[in-house]
Specification:
This protein is α+β, with helices and mostly antiparallel strands. The protein contains two helices and five strands; from the N terminus they run βαββββα. It has one domain: Thiol Ester Dehydrase, Chain A. 16% of the residues lie in helices and 33% in strands. Strand 3 and strand 4 (95-104) form a beta hairpin.
Length: 140
């Protein structure tokens, strides 16, 4: 998402929001939130989002991420609590794009990062399957 024109128009309001406190061990050697942790926070937000929506995940029906990217807009230092605004766009038969805008409590209106991932729903055989109805409802 380094080119904002690549990102589709997101809804005015996020589909889901959550807060994730930064842990002391989440810092890199320079005292910033380690770049890999932004994606871990997105992973946590994605599962909180699915859980809040009542989406059941089983060995026969679960999401996999097949593409991921992140643009770092400003450093985050400890202590901080991250707010992730989560959006679902571009639904397909078995997939959708998830976008995440990340903020800190200290600067709640100034994003510190933006990330995206393509999520595909699969079955026990590893093949794609239609999105669950509760996920499909996000796009109605």
């Amino acid at each position: 998402m380094t080119d904002p024109s690549q990102r589709p128009e997101l809804p005015e309001e996020p589909h889901f929001q959550c807060e994730i406190p930064m842990r002391w061990g989440d810092m890199d050697a320079l005292g910033h939130l380690n770049n890999t942790l932004y994606l871990r926070y997105c992973e946590e937000a994605r599962f909180l989002w699915l859980s809040a929506a009542g989406v059941k995940m089983t060995p026969e029906s679960y999401p996999v991420v097949i593409t991921v990217g992140c643009t770092f807009l400003r450093p985050v230092v400890y202590p901080a609590t991250m707010r992730l605004d989560c959006y679902a766009v571009d639904p397909g038969r078995s997939s959708f794009m998830a976008y995440f805008r990340m903020f800190t409590e200290e600067e709640p209106n100034k994003p510190c990062a933006e990330a995206h991932s393509k999520v595909v729903w699969v079955g026990a055989d590893g093949k794609s399957r239609p999105l669950p109805d509760k996920v499909r409802a996000w796009f109605d």
